[in-house]
């Protein structure tokens, strides 16, 4: 496995709850884990993410304030439907946005959720 140059690592309050959210709900792949460290390494369509259960009592929900993690995926509409069907709270519903990039315009579809610890996750095509 090749590692990306930048891989975010989230401190989480409950590694099992986070695994269920990322793997079972969002479809991330478990690349490997170290149960003794309450650590997992996940991937989804080229994105990589590390999760580790924290013992830091000073972290207060929502974790990662002010940071927006954006994941480019191939079928954002399908993932959105899965999240809605699971009755998981949607932070920002699926919309088509318009952005100027240099001299042209892109129109990605995107939606956002907060993970169990309040990390802001945006998924777009």
TrEMBL record:
Keywords: Antibiotic resistance. PROSITE patterns: VOC (PS51819). Residues 1-125 form the VOC domain. It holds the Pfam family Glyoxalase. GO terms for biological process: response to antibiotic. InterPro entries: Bleomycin-R, Glyas_Bleomycin-R_OHBP_Dase, Glyas_Fos-R_dOase_dom, VOC_core. Gene3D superfamilies: 2,3-Dihydroxybiphenyl 1,2-Dioxygenase, domain 1 (3.10.180.10). Belongs to the bleomycin resistance protein family. This is Bleomycin resistance protein. The lineage of its organism: Bacteria, Bacillati, Bacillota, Bacilli, Bacillales.
């Amino acid at each position: 496995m090749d590692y990306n140059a930048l891989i975010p690592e989230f401190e989480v309050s409950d590694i099992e709850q986070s695994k269920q959210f990322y793997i079972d709900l969002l479809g991330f792949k478990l690349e490997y884990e170290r149960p003794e460290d309450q650590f997992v390494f996940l991937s989804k369509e080229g994105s990589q993410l590390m999760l580790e259960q924290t013992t830091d009592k000073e972290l207060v929900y929502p974790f990662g304030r002010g940071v927006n993690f954006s994941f480019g995926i191939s079928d954002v509409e399908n993932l959105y439907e899965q999240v809605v069907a699971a009755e998981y709270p949607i932070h920002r519903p699926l919309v088509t946005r318009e952005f100027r990039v240099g001299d042209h315009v892109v129109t990605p579809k995107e939606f956002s959720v907060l993970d169990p610890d309040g990390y802001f996750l945006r998924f777009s095509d």
